[in-house]
């Protein structure tokens, strides 16, 4: 008896019908071609039926672009930004209404925990995401590539290095758009080569950095050494190269159901997503007056300094030199906080405490924790009773959580926070206990 061959997919570039069933972490919808291969396509949504053209044909999967939409998802909406429709790579989900975006992001976290982390109970572990009230014009920094020919400030088209002139971005803070309006077109004919221009705003202080210095455009103040931003009553100095959360614009809102208490006073003009993230971390640490806490990958000291009034001692570990300088400046008035310069994998096991720390906060870059960090946490010399893991990449989070759980920790829950509306990115706070 002959085996039946799967149907052949249509030739590359020829439209073929696909039912899209899910969303991928990178911001594409996921379906299957006639031959059974997975196909990824941007600007589509789970539940939609469409004709697509394959543009990248691989052995095990394909990438496609929308040719014609036949059945739209209930949550599809008209994107307000013309650059999104034109292929800008900055946003992924403007064509989904905001409740659907939050559902997609939760589904992605659940899928990554189930597939990569092998957590069969992932759907029970992941809480409903905490989102924004108004999910637009929130981002406090942007970096524009300067076109060599016309000196225009540009983003790039999705999955390419081709430049797209931007005159107004729907997700950056209004102060950035105001600066962009003045700068746009003013760098044509500049004799020196300027590759990129960064604009950063303190949403709660009104301060702005334009980097590098642009003496050719005197109407815009530029070349500032640092700016200050405020979170939950604490001021943070930030050099241009120092990492800081991008969503600091405050909104009037109640505490979300997923955050039962605020351990610090709430500002009168509302709460930003960065402040909600900090409050979630504090709540999960559950700090006590006699606690010793380590803030690994501490940056400019955000979590460490907000936690300091609530505990006995905090030690921060940070590799980036300017961030350590900022953290030491920011915490100079707090005698119970210290910052150690170095890689977390080199420093974590050498910190001197009078006893075992009560909690460790982890906030690594997208690559996740270095294996040596996980080994140190699981070793008998450290092994804190609680870990609070902050991650902007659910895939590496799932990988590291599996290692920690296999090493004896219990994953209590994962709280997603939508720090980056309209994009595919999602922040998560995972809580583990012994």
Q: How far from one another are the termini?
A: 57 Å
Helix content: 10-25%
Reading the helices and strands in chain order gives EEEEEHHHEEEHEEEEHEHEHEHEHEHEE
Determine the strand fraction and express it as a percent band: 25-35%
Low-confidence stretches: none
Instruction: Tell me, briefly, the overall form.
Output: globular
Widest sheet: strand order? 15-14-13-16-17-19-18
The CATH topology of the largest domain corresponds to Rossmann fold
Name given to the CATH homologous superfamily of the largest domain: Vaccinia Virus protein VP39
Category from helices, strands and their pairing: alpha+beta
Q: Helix count, per DSSP?
A: 10
How many separate domains? 3
Summarize the structure.
Helices cover 21% and strands 25% of the residues.
How would you summarize the topology of this molecule?
Blueprint: E1 16-23, E2 29-32, E3 38-41, E4 49-57, E5 61-71, H1 82-85, H2 98-115, H3 122-125, E6 141-146, E7 153-156, E8 163-165, H4 174-183, E9 196-201, E10 208-211, E11 227-231, E12 234-238, H5 273-285, E13 292-296, H6 302-307, E14 313-318, H7 321-330, E15 337-341, H8 344-347, E16 359-362, H9 371-378, E17 386-391, H10 394-406, E18 410-417, E19 427-433
Helix pairs in contact: 2-10
Describe the structure.
The chain has 434 residues and is α+β, with helices and mostly antiparallel strands. It folds into three domains: 16-73, OB fold (Dihydrolipoamide Acetyltransferase, E2P) (Beta Barrel), CATH 2.40.50.140; 122-134 and 245-433, Vaccinia Virus protein VP39 (Rossmann fold), CATH 3.40.50; 141-238. It has helices spanning 82-85, 98-115, 122-125, 174-183, 273-285, 302-307, 321-330, 344-347, 371-378, 394-406; strands at residues 16-23, 29-32, 38-41, 49-57, 61-71, 141-146, 153-156, 163-165, 196-201, 208-211, 227-231, 234-238, 292-296, 313-318, 337-341, 359-362, 386-391, 410-417, 427-433. The strands form four sheets. A seven-stranded mixed beta sheet has the order 15-14-13-16-17-19-18, with helices on both faces. A hairpin with a 5-residue loop joins strand 1 (16-23) and strand 2 (29-32). The chain starts with 15 loop residues before the first strand and ends with a strand. The model has no long low-confidence stretch (mean pLDDT 95).
């Amino acid at each position: 008896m002959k085996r039946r061959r799967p149907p052949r997919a249509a030739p590359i570039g020829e439209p073929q019908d696909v039912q899209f069933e899910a969303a991928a972490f990178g911001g594409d919808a996921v379906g299957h071609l006639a031959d059974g291969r997975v196909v990824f396509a941007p600007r589509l949504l789970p539940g939609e039926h469409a004709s697509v053209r394959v543009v990248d044909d691989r052995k095990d999967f394909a990438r496609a672009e929308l040719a014609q939409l036949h059945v739209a998802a209930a949550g599809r909406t008209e994107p307000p930004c013309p650059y999104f429709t034109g292929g800008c790579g900055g946003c992924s989900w403007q064509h989904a209404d905001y409740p659907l975006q939050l559902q997609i992001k939760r589904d992605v976290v659940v899928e990554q925990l189930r597939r990569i982390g092998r957590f069969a109970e992932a759907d029970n572990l992941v809480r409903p995401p905490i989102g924004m009230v108004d999910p637009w014009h929130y981002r406090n920094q942007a970096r524009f590539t300067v076109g060599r020919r016309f000196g225009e400030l540009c983003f790039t088209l999705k999955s390419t290095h081709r430049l797209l002139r931007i005159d107004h971005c729907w997700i950056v803070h209004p102060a950035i758009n105001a600066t962009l309006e003045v700068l746009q077109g003013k760098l044509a004919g500049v004799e020196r080569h300027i590759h990129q221009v960064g604009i950063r705003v303190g949403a709660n202080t009104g301060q702005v950095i334009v980097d590098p210095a642009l003496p050719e455009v005197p109407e815009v103040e530029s070349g500032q050494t640092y700016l200050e931003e405020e979170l939950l009553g604490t001021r943070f100095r930030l050099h241009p190269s120092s990492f800081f959360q991008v969503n600091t614009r405050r909104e009037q809102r109640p505490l979300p159901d997923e955050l039962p208490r605020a351990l610090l006073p709430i500002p009168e003009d509302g709460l930003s997503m960065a402040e909600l993230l900090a409050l979630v971390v504090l709540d999960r640490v559950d700090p006590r007056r006699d606690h010793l806490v380590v803030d690994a990958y501490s940056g400019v000291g955000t979590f460490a300094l907000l936690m300091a009034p609530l505990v006995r001692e905090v030690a921060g570990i940070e590799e980036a030199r300017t961030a350590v300088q900022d953290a030491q400046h920011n915490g100079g008035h707090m005698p119970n906080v210290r910052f150690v310069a170095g890689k977390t994998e080199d420093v974590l096991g050498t910190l001197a405490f009078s006893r075992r720390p009560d909690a460790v906060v982890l906030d690594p870059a997208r690559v996740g924790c270095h294996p040596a960090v996980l080994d140190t946490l699981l070793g008998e010399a450290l092994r804190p009773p609680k870990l609070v893991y902050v991650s902007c990449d659910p895939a590496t989070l799932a990988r590291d959580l599996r290692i920690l759980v296999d090493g004896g920790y219990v994953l209590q829950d994962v709280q997603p926070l939508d720090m980056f509306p309209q994009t595919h990115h999602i922040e998560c706070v995972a809580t583990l206990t012994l």
